[in-house]
């Protein structure tokens, strides 16, 4: 592959990930997965069967959340246009929620893998929680760099973003 082709592919990828719905879905999905992983620690169930159930439950919850977000966007967009929203446009709005589901897939895979016996089932939720906080840090760093900020300020804000993610997850855990 030529260097110019790699640069072009990198720009397209950055362009895709810099879209507000992708960033929103990525961040929301990471927080959702972290909150659900934190909730799993409360129950203390660590059998392989429980982990398989947990992975399915998380995937179902992510899909339901994406559907709820898309539905809310459809309702909210009704006031933007005098013409009614077509079925095709409504499906497109729902499909735009894919980043939320994709952001939960690493945690789904970790739980599924624990359920399959690929790795230890006990305390996998802590690893998933840490991974998701790292994702929040990465989203913060990426968005700051995409906005043209320096590495130093981007790293500081990314740390704050990760800390805010931890606070949100703890708040969610305390509420439940």
Structural features, described:
- The chain is mainly α and 176 residues long.
- The protein is built from seven helices and no strands.
- Helix 2 runs antiparallel to helix 6, helix 2 packs across helix 7 and helix 5 runs antiparallel to helix 6.
- The protein starts with a helix and ends with a helix.
- The model has no long low-confidence stretch (mean pLDDT 85).
Helix and strand layout, with pairings?
Layout: H1 3-17, H2 20-43, H3 48-77, H4 87-95, H5 98-116, H6 124-146, H7 151-175
Helix pairs in contact: 2-3, 2-5, 2-6, 2-7, 3-4, 3-5, 5-6, 6-7
Question: Which structural traits does this protein have?
Answer:
176 residues; 7 helices; mainly alpha; single chain
Backbone CA Rg = 18 Å
Strand residues, percent: under 5%
Structural class: mainly alpha
Quick one: overall form?
Answer: globular
Q: What is the succession of H and E elements?
A: HHHHHHH
Helicity range of the residues? over 70%
Global mean pLDDT: 85
Task: State the low-pLDDT regions, or none.
Answer: none
Total DSSP helices: 7
Distance between the termini: 51 Å
Structure summary, number of beta strands: 0
In short, what is this structure?
This protein is mainly α and 176 residues long.
């Amino acid at each position: 592959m030529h260097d110019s082709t790699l640069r072009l592919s990198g720009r397209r990828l950055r362009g895709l990930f810099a879209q507000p719905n992708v960033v929103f879905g990525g961040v929301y999905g990471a927080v959702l997965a972290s909150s659900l992983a934190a909730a799993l620690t409360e129950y203390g169930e660590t059998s392989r069967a429980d982990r398989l159930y947990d992975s399915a439950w998380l995937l179902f919850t992510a899909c339901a959340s994406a559907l709820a977000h898309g539905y809310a966007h459809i309702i909210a967009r009704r006031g933007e246009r005098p013409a009614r929203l077509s079925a095709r446009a409504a499906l497109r709005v729902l499909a735009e929620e894919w980043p939320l589901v994709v952001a939960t897939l690493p945690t789904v895979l970790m739980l599924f893998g624990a359920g399959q016996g690929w790795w230890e089932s006990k305390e996998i939720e802590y690893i998933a929680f840490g991974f998701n906080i790292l994702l929040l840090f990465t989203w913060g760093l990426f968005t700051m760099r995409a906005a043209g900020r320096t590495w130093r300020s981007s790293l500081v804000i990314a740390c704050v973003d990760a800390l805010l993610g931890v606070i949100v997850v703890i708040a969610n855990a305390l509420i439940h």
